[in-house]
Amino acid sequence: MQKSAKMLLAVVLFLLCLNVVIWYAASQASHTGVLTVSFLNIGQGDAIYIESPTGQQVLIDGGKNRAVLRELSKMTPWFDRTLDVVIGTHPDLDHIGGLPDVLTRYRVSTVMRSSVHDEEGTDFAAFNKAIETEKNAGANEVVAARGQIIDIGGDAYIQILFPDRDVPLVETNTGSIVTRLVYGDTAFMLTGDSPESIEEYLVRLDGSKLRSTVLKAGHHGSRTSSSPLFVGFVDPEYVVFSRGCDNTYGHPHEEVVELFKRFEIQTFDTCTNRRVTFMSDGNTVTLKK
User: Fold this and answer.
1) For residues 19 and 4, what is the distance between their CA atoms, to the nearest angstrom?
2) Cα-flanking dihedrals φ and ψ of residue 182, to 5°?
3) Strand 149-153 relative to strand 156-162: parallel, antiparallel, unpaired?
4) End-to-end Cα, the chain, rounded Å
5) Distance between CA atoms of residues 289 and 273, nearest Å
6) Contact residues for 250 (Cβ-Cβ < 8 A; gap 6+)
7) Residue 221: closest CA among 250, 178, 181
8) How far is residue 168's CA from residue 204's CA, in Å, rounded to a whole number?
9) Which residues does residue 87 pair with via DSSP β-bridges, in sequence order?
10) Which residues contact 35 (CB under 8 A, 6 or more apart)?
11) pLDDT in tens, the chain (289 residues)
């Protein structure tokens, strides 16, 4: 009986290892040469999951609660508990509230944050505590600054466009990290909750270099973002509203919706479309059905 139990255990372990190998091989094959960007369905907030052409994994923001863990579990194999980069764009609940749980559940190589502070926010304190714990486990902490480049493999990279200075005392949205994810001739403009003043400042700095295939509508589609000047220079084919159906802010605001209609830009919405995923081969961007 004991010998049979040992044989059964050996078979189970073999099948488990085989399952892991198959999952890993399938995941490697699925992203070879393709950049995947998913705007996660986490309610009111931002959470953007990126897989590079070589399989590196990036999470930009984590929504306001543990819903991000549910979404991540659908994006990665069950045995994968690693992320290469986590970026918290600014210390508002609907952007960093879920990140302490992410940092607890996943081993993260690099954590990037804005220099903007929210000293009275308990969520900000929890995020900082989680970063310290992850640093003790070997993670790198990076404060975002314009000009930084994050190489995520396969010729895909993330540009940091803003902040271009230390911004510890400004209003938190104004200190949002603005990133531009680039792969070949395609790009994704991800602005956190940056207001129009920052968008127009970036136009003065970068002009036509802002052009991107996909734009995440700033501040969930609030009228405080998505200035016509900025949208014109980004010139996106697609726009995504990352927001909850039951939000009390009225996002997206009607004038912003109308702006994208005037520009004839196709829009998607994590309220009505749920998770929104794009795939880029470096030449074109397609919506994953």
Assistant:
1) 22
2) -120, 135
3) antiparallel
4) 51
5) 11
6) none
7) 250
8) 23
9) 60, 112
10) 50, 51, 52, 53, 154, 156, 181, 183, 186, 279, 280, 281, 282
11) 465 655 555 554 544 544 544 444 444 445 579 999 999 999 999 999 999 999 999 999 999 999 999 999 999 998 999 999 999 999 999 999 999 999 999 999 999 999 998 877 789 999 999 999 999 999 999 999 999 999 999 999 999 999 999 988 788 999 999 999 999 999 999 999 999 999 999 999 999 999 999 999 999 999 999 999 999 999 999 999 999 998 999 999 999 999 999 999 999 999 999 999 999 999 999 999 8
Pick from 211, 205, 207: which is nearest to 182 by CA? 211
Tokens of 106: 């996943």
- DSSP string of 269-285? ETTTT-SEEEEE-SS-E
Here the tokens at position 33 are 């040469």
CA dist 203 and 231 (Å) reads 10
C-alpha distances in Å from residue 185, one per residue of 44, 155, 165, 214, 238: 31, 11, 29, 12, 15
> How do strand 238-241 and strand 214-216 relate by DSSP bridges?
parallel
The number of angstroms, rounded, from the C-alpha of 94 to the middle of its chain's C-alpha atoms is 13
Omega prior to 163 cis, within 30 of 0? yes
CA distances for 121 relative to 43, 94, 129, 239, angstroms: 21, 12, 13, 31
What domains lie within the chain, and their CATH numbers?
32-287 (3.60.15.10)
Q: What is the DSSP letter of 90?
A: S
Q: Taking a C-beta distance cutoff of 8 angstroms, is the pair 287, 266 a contact?
A: no
Secondary structure E strands in the chain? 35-39, 48-51, 57-60, 82-88, 107-113, 140-143, 149-153, 156-162, 178-183, 186-190, 214-216, 238-241, 266-269, 276-280, 285-287
